[in-house]
Automatic annotation (TrEMBL):
Residues 140-178 form the Mechanosensitive ion channel transmembrane helices 2/3 domain. GO terms for molecular function: mechanosensitive monoatomic ion channel activity. Gene3D superfamilies: 1.10.287.1260, 2.30.30.60, 3.30.70.100. Its main location: membrane. Residues 255-337 form the Mechanosensitive ion channel MscS C-terminal domain. One of its GO terms (cellular component) is plasma membrane. The chain crosses the membrane at residues 25-46, 93-114, 126-152, 158-177. Belongs to the MscS (TC 1.A.23) family. This is Small-conductance mechanosensitive channel. Keywords: Cell membrane, Membrane, Transmembrane, Transmembrane helix. The lineage of its organism: Bacteria, Thermotogati, Deinococcota, Deinococci, Deinococcales. It comes from the Bacteria.
Length: 367
């Protein structure tokens, strides 16, 4: 059959091609695997020696991590240069890989030095954590961009024309990523305007928590329930931001009602005793108890007191302790916290009494 003959001929050609390729490339691939294992073993031996040396000279963990990274990069580069000689690649590839290795090594240690200088400058100029984070992120982005440009240059690839060609595509992506760009712009605005800093307790809309991190895209809060919330910066910038920590001590209000029959002076006295005994309530500014409303069923009182800035995280707990102690103290003093109640006055009570049937009337016979 002609079809089977053609298929058999194609199979013989493919097998002949495999027989020609496998002896050549199989040996190269096997040599590459052997080299990878050898350099991996070399790296482990050198790392063990490096750790032993660091213990003798008492080098810090930062230096040990930096030297370990440099050692890993060196072994990887030597492996690539050695393995490239097994394949039909341009002769200058080894020199190119060596230049790339030196550039990456300089960029790595240069970034460590630059980061240290930025940290010192932030401390010298008393920059807050959020602005220092913005400076670090911008410097990192610029440093990475310079590194990519230098590395691609070694392979003869000029990124500038490519970036210029991406300008039109960038406009289209800009329309598609409006939310992302809005968050980035809002993040820069928040970092420059600084309505809060890292560590502050803030309230944004329905969220309340401690600022853990401020990036160019999100603001990250930790709530009192230890939940982490990432809020887009555009929502933070577009909402009213209440900073609970910026003013120092925080004023707290707790409300309760006492009976109209109660002695207000006596009630104020026993409540003040509770506030003075609570260790987390500040004595300066002094706490006070104020009548704020004459309600339908009770006289409404506000317990007004102050807590320290470092106690803001425990504000709900402090309020609970104050209210529980107040309830027990009022009960002991015989001061009632009334239930909602109404007094009903019937002006035509006699008319209602006359219109009501006498006892026994209106009942059905037989009952």
């Amino acid at each position: 059959m002609p079809g089977l003959t053609v298929l058999a001929e194609q199979g013989r050609l493919a097998w002949a091609l495999v027989q020609d390729i496998v002896p050549l490339w199989g040996a190269r691939l096997l040599s590459t695997v052997v080299l990878a294992l050898a350099f991996s073993l070399l790296y482990r031996l050198l790392r063990a020696g490096l750790r032993s040396l660091s213990k003798r000279v008492r080098a810090g963990p930062a230096w040990l991590h930096a030297l370990d990274t440099a050692l890993r990069l060196t072994c990887l580069t030597l492996f690539l240069i050695t393995a490239s000689s097994l394949y039909p690649l341009p002769s200058e590839i080894s020199v190119t890989l060596l230049r790339v290795y030196l550039i990456i090594l300089l960029l790595y240690f240069g970034w460590a030095l630059l980061r240290s200088l930025l940290a010192r400058a932030s401390g010298h100029f008393a920059l807050d954590a959020s602005l220092a984070l913005l400076t670090l992120n911008v410097a990192r982005a610029v440093w990475i961009a310079v590194g990519l440009y230098l590395v691609f240059q070694q392979f003869g690839i000029n990124l500038l024309p490519i970036l210029g060609g991406l300008g039109i595509a960038g406009v289209a992506l800009g329309f598609a990523a409006q939310d992302l760009l809005s968050n980035l712009i809002s993040g820069i605005t928040l970092l420059l305007d600084r309505p809060f800093t890292i560590g502050d307790w803030i309230r944004v809309g329905s969220w309340e928590g401690q600022v853990q991190r401020l990036t160019l895209r999100t603001t990250r809060l930790r709530t009192r329930d230890n939940e982490y919330i990432s809020i887009p910066n555009s929502k933070v910038a577009g909402n009213d931001v209440v900073n609970l920590s910026a003013g120092g001590p925080l004023r707290v209000r707790s409300s309760l009602g006492v009976s109209y029959r109660a002695d207000l002076d006596r009630g104020r006295e026993v409540i003040m005793q509770v506030l003075q005994k609570e260790e987390l309530v500040l004595s300066d500014p002094a706490p006070r108890v104020a009548v704020v409303e004459l309600g339908e069923s009770s006289v409404q009182l506000d317990l007004i007191y102050w807590i320290a800035q470092d106690s803001i995280a425990r504000r709900p707990l402090i309020q609970q302790r104050v209210l529980e102690a107040t309830k027990r103290t009022l009960d002991a003093a015989g001061i009632e916290i009334p239930f909602p109640q109404r007094v009903l006055h019937l002006e035509n009570a006699r008319v209602l009494q006359r219109s009501s049937p006498p006892d026994g009337e209106g009942e059905q016979p037989g009952r």
